[in-house]
Amino acid sequence: MPKVAPELVDLLQALFKQDELSRALEREDWSVELVKHLSPVEHTTPDAWFHGVVRLVVQRDEVPELLAMVRRLRPKRSAEIDAVERLLSSTARRRQ
Length: 96
Description:
globular, mainly alpha, 70% helix, 6 helices
């Protein structure tokens, strides 16, 4: 099972409500299938739901797509998004 990046979970929780992120994911070609594997927003705690999103995104190797979508939806928060992206990249390099 892929490791859930807590920084990415925290970023998503800071920038979105569950239902808003769910709707955004439903509109993206790359994440249509991903959404089908998530628990329904109304039946899941925010923490568990956001962890589920990150787990699936990491498992499917779609972190760049997620970050691009987040950057597009929250352009004023690009510094935070970039910081998490750098952190994830450095963590991935250390694992190799």
